[in-house]
């Protein structure tokens, strides 16, 4: 996703977060490999985005995060806090999860 956003909006700064240092590390490798200078990868807890200022983001996108968050309401509150008034939040969510071996 960061690569697509970088191609479409090359001058727009982007922050990509995940609670997993391993996932952020993989993303950082992709950022370095694909020369995505305007993308910043950060380890952040979706329920406590301490590294993101109030109303600092114009567009927020979550990919299946709300469904898997330990406290979905707290995560939604953080998204609301960091998204500028009049901003946009895009959210994808699973209806259900089924694991099989």
Automatic annotation (TrEMBL):
Q: Where is the Methyltransferase type domain?
A: 15-88
Under SUPFAM superfamilies, the record lists: S-adenosyl-L-methionine-dependent methyltransferases (SSF53335)
Any one GO molecular-function label of the UniProt entry: S-adenosylmethionine-dependent methyltransferase activity
> InterPro entries, alphabetically?
Methyltransf_11, SAM-dependent_MTases_sf
Q: Which Pfam families match?
A: Methyltransf_11
Q: What is this protein called?
A: Methyltransferase type 11 domain-containing protein
Q: Which organism is it from?
A: Oleoguttula mirabilis
